[in-house]
Amino acid sequence: MGHVARYLARQGTFAAAGCHFEVPALPGPRRQTHGIVLCHAHDPVQHAETCPSGEFAATPALKIMTTTTEYTPTIDGAASHYDDLDQFYREIWGEHIHHGVWLTGRETDTEAAENLIKIVAELGHHSPNQEVCDIGCGYGTTAKILAQRHAVNITGMTISAVQLAYAQANNSVPGKTHFMLRDWYDNQLPDNHFDVVQTVESLEHMPDLPAFFRECYRVMKPGGRLVATAWMSCENPDAFAKRHLIDAITRETQIAGVRPESEFRAATEGAGFVNYQFKDYARQVKRTWPLCALRTVKGLLTKAHYRRFLFSSRNPNRIFALTLFRIWLAYELGVQRYGVFSAEKR
User: What is the pLDDT of residues 171-183, one digit of tens each?
Assistant: First the structure.
């Protein structure tokens, strides 16, 4: 039995591969949404007649499966994802737009988000007047906090024009932080310039990991440090988990992939880095997703612009509202990991 079947069977509420489950049926016919098929069935016979083969069977059931549309990651697609969802990211995630790390379990969501920044600073050995490159800086919040607390000079890069405008307009440490709109694969930065290169949840958007880390190596001074946090998958997800979780999350979030840790290590060491160190924080970060899901549901219930966005076919990125729950499930099943790793330039 695969990851999903084991988890659902353990919860006693679903059925896959012969495990019984009970989910309230929705009235009405099968409906197709962007990336998802919802299928209503009153009994297995009707289910077989009205739903595609290979899906769950239930009596009654709400069926969810991903479609198999072709997907090719692009810079423009990722940029439009962040530009389109800008208001929702800031309202649901806040300015950090990265996972929180609950080390004690008692932290507020803001404290948890700043825990990740502390981890990055510790691994980067941040110290005054270091030159730091922050790849995928988002709204610039991590860069500003590090500049304020450690007096480093940070160059932040994003592919989102909306994020760049926000970072520049809210730059509280202009003498220490500089933000630019730039594709990392064409970053135009000088050789041997940075003491630290860091990336917080941006590797997901990089289709060519070896080329990414070669660029990191090029722009770093000898002895410089690389620090990265990344969405990762388990090493060998089963076919169901890969199709309905890993591949679906990849497509719906406009990223290049959710890849296993072994691929990151191979690409990092292949670029010439040494002293690679890795830790999985999945258990400490997974609370991020039920919090985001709860805020999304609350927004749908209380804010008209949430409903207008979600139910308008003109907004292809609206699928992310459902992806929140998919990612939450991936963490609960152990399919998704959260990797933090560091390395050094020779």
Answer: 999 999 999 999 9
All structural domains of the chain, each given as residue ranges with its CATH number in brackets, are: 1-67 (no CATH), 75-286+330-344 (3.40.50.150)
pLDDT bracket for residue 344 (50, 70, 90): very high
Instruction: Give per-residue pLDDT as tens, 215-234.
Output: 999 999 999 999 999 999 99
Q: What local confidence, expressed as pLDDT, does residue 69 receive?
A: 56
From the number of C-beta atoms within 10 Å of its C-beta (0-12, 13-18, 19+), residue 62 rates as: middle
Average pLDDT of the chain? 83
Q: Is the pLDDT of residue 13 over 50?
A: no
3-state secondary structure of 244: helix
Cα 38 from Cα 209, distance rounded (Å): 35
Closest by CA position to 107, among listed 185, 45, 99: 99
Residue 21 in 3-state DSSP?
coil
**Residue 142 in contact with residue 117, Cβ under 8 Å?**
yes
| CA 307 to each of CA 104, 229, 296, 327: distance values in angstroms, whole numbers, following the listed order | 36, 32, 10, 21
* 291-337 residue pLDDT tens: 999 999 999 999 998 898 888 888 878 888 889 999 999 999 999 99
CB distance 118 to 112 below 8 Å: no
Length of the chain: 346
Q: Detail the DSSP E strand segments found in the chain.
A: 31-33, 36-41, 61-66, 131-135, 153-158, 177-181, 194-200, 220-233, 259-260, 274-280, 336-344
